[in-house]
Structures are given as structure tokens and as C-alpha cells.
Amino acid sequence: xxxxxxxxxxxxxxxxxxxxxxxxxxxxxxxxxxxxxxxxxxxxxxxxxxxxxxxxxxxxxxxxxxxxxxxxxxxxxxxxxxxxxxxxxxxxxxxxxxxxxxxxxxxxxxxxxxxxxxxxxxxxxxxxxxxxxxxxxxxxxx
Length: 142
Prior knowledge:
Elements: H1 6-20, E1 29-32, E2 41-54, E3 62-77, H2 81-101, E4 110-124, E5 127-141
Parallel strand pairs: 1-2
Antiparallel strand pairs: 2-3, 3-5, 4-5
């Protein structure tokens, strides 16, 4: 039995998003944690938490309710907050739709829902930036 499904789920999510870097996420930095040198567009798998529940029958199956925290950042030099915000929400939607496209992530977990969206406007030199944080929840059997 694994100590937690968090590492496997994180790897599966990261792999799915890295595949999209050749198409939908071209030019977007995808990383687990903060990247060393981010591009103007970033999707980072940031935090992970889990709570456990045990089935009362049989072999005491163990489930984890996992919450993965993401950060999406978009910088628009010479642009507006509206442009940066629109693109940041587009990137968030790409992540959600990709995970909905394979609800089990190769049997790593069962996708639940996207929750806890928070947007922050950030000033940058000669431009505008928007950061969105959000949580995707799912369930894994370990």
C-alpha cells in the first residue's frame, strides 16, 4: 500500500499538461512548484492536501480525498488587466477540460470538481499581470 496517492496523482496531472505543451499550451510554462524561469504564461501545480476515509467492510479499503492547488499566471507587457485575466481563465479552463477528458487519469484518481477560484491583479513594469489560484478535487484509492 502506498503512503499517499498525492505523488502519483501529481505526476499524472503534470504529464497530461506537459503533453499539451506541444499544442494547446504551446509557450506556456508547466511546472510542479514554482519554475526557475517562468514564461509570460505559467501553470504550476502548487499545493496538495488529502483526507482519508476507510471503508468499514472487507479489507479496510483506504480512500483519499485529494485537493490539488494550481497557480496560473499571465503577464501582458503593454497590455491590460482584462487581456491578462481573459487568458488566465482560458488556461484554467484548459486544465479543467483536460482533466475532465480522462476522469481517472490512467486509474490514478477519480476527478471530482474545480473549486476555490481566486483572482489577483499584479502590477508589473510596463504591463499587467493576473494570477489565478484554484483547486481541483478528486478521490483516489490506496
